[in-house]
Every structure is written in C-alpha cells, then in structure tokens.
Amino acid sequence: MGLIQFFGLDKLATLGRMVRSHGGVLASLRHIYVTDDLKEGTLVGEDKFGNKYFQNDKYFYGRNRWVSRRETGLAAKLGLGKECQKVVVLHQKVGGQKVNRVWHQ
After folding, report:
1. Which of 22, 40, 43, 50 could pair with 28 in a Cys bridge, judged by C-beta atoms 3.0 to 4.6 Å apart?
2. How many domains does the chain have?
3. Starting at the edge strand that comes first in sequence, how are the strands of the sheet with 52-55 ordered?
4. Measured between alpha carbons, how far is 97 from 69 in angstroms, rounded to an integer?
C-alpha cells in the first residue's frame, strides 16, 4: 500500500472524475438530490427512446448496471436536468419494450 492509498488520495481522484463526468459540482449535487446516487461507468448502449445503459464492474453485482432514463413530462418542461437516472430491475419493462437479452448476460 502506497502513500497515495494510505492517505485516501485515490478516493479523492475518483470523486473528482465522477463530478467531472456529471457536469460539475452543481450538476452532481442535483443528480445526487434526484437519484440519491452518483456513479460513473461506461456507456453500454442506448435504445430508441433515449435511455442510456451503463456498466461498471467495480460495483457489486446487481448494482453494476443501471439505466439513465431520458427525462420526459413535467421534469423536462421545468428544465430539471437533461437526464434522470434511476436504477431499474433489468427484468422490468422499460418504455413498453423489454431490455435486450444481451443486457442480461
């Protein structure tokens, strides 16, 4: 264990990356307020409805995949952010369509 890990500087670097990937401090705080979670991951795919699918295998199994849903309705009209991320059960229907079988593997 090096000095960087001993003092926890690697955790601060991860936090900085997460804040940057969400668009800054205010956007990150808004995202935490809406979803109670702040994650980073690789974009796996996007469906025809604008929902984005992410994956990060550093998280526990079951929380390593999530969907960032496109904002619609009142939230989009009020301009409460571009996306509203919600963790969904993968077997749940998303936008009237089932999630691709590849996503379950």
Report:
1. 22
2. 2
3. 42-46, 52-55, 65-70, 83-86
4. 13
pTM: 0.59
pLDDT tens-digit series, residues 1-44: 788 777 888 889 889 999 998 889 998 998 888 888 888 889 99
**Range(s) of the domain holding residue 100:** 41-105
The candidate with the shortest Cα–Cα distance to 84, out of 20, 26, 27, is: 27
Q: With pLDDT > 90 as the criterion, what percentage of the chain qualifies?
A: 15
Both tokens assigned to 6? 């001993």
Distance CA 41, CA 59 (A): 10
- Rounded Cα–Cα distance for residues 51 and 34 (Å): 17
| Contact criterion met (CB below 8 Å) for 40 and 21 | yes
d(CA 67, CA 53): 5
CB 58 within 8 A of CB 69: no
